[in-house]
Amino acid sequence: MSKLDNQMDKINQQLKAKGYKLTHQRAMTLRVLLENEQDHLSAEDVYMLVKKTYPEIGLATVYRTLELLTELHIVEKMNFGDGVARFDLRDDSQEHMHHHLICAKCGVLKEIQEDWLLELEQRVQREFGFTVTDHRLDFTGLFQSCSAGECKRGKDTKAS
Ligand SMILES: [Zn+2]
Ligand SMILES: [Zn+2]
């Protein structure tokens, strides 16, 4: 079984456990999300990509599927400051959401999969009696390559 089939299978189990079926349309939407995991796609991006192999699908269906996956905590709806909601897959081997590094100039994004906040969470529990169930941590700044002028947006402006 390929990694993608494996992931599909796992999510199918998650859906089943909550009483949902992995319909063809849901499967197509999910496949696009999995295939482009690093890209943090918007609903429109997902729609355009699903349409390539499944032209009959409607934007509303894609929206509904993404909302359902968000409700079930299979994906997370993220906002990286550009006003567009983006969908990000959660890794079920990690209890908490992964961290993001975002270039302030071009928006290029990298993920840190490891949970670096465990110590901080324990401290919050100790000092506030507050149990952390999840968190989001997005760092905004500049990658070395971006400060060196290899920023995606830097290139764009130079070209125009
Ligand atoms: Zn992410
Ligand atoms: Zn950049």
Please write out the topology:
Layout: H1 3-17, H2 24-35, H3 43-53, H4 59-71, E1 75-79, E2 85-89, E3 99-103, E4 109-112, H5 118-128, E5 138-141, H6 144-150, H7 152-159
Parallel strand pairs: 3-5
Antiparallel strand pairs: 1-2, 3-4
Helix pairs in contact: 2-3, 3-4
Short description:
This protein is 48% helix and 14% strand. The protein has helices at 3-17, 24-35, 43-53, 59-71, 118-128, 144-150, 152-159, and strands spanning 75-79, 85-89, 99-103, 109-112, 138-141. It has a three-stranded mixed beta sheet with strand order 4-3-5, with no helix packed on it.
Explain this structure to me?
This protein has helices at 3-17, 24-35, 43-53, 59-71, 118-128, 144-150, 152-159, and strands spanning 75-79, 85-89, 99-103, 109-112, 138-141. It has 160 residues and is of the alpha+beta class. It folds into two domains: 1-93, Orthogonal Bundle (Arc Repressor Mutant, subunit A); 96-160, Dna Ligase, domain 1 (2-Layer Sandwich), CATH 3.30.1490.190. The strands form two sheets. It has a three-stranded mixed β-sheet with strand order 4-3-5, with no helix packed on it. Residues 155-160 have low confidence and may be disordered. Bound molecules: zinc ion (2 copies). One zinc ion binds next to loops. Residues 40, 88, 98, 100, 111 line the site of one zinc ion.
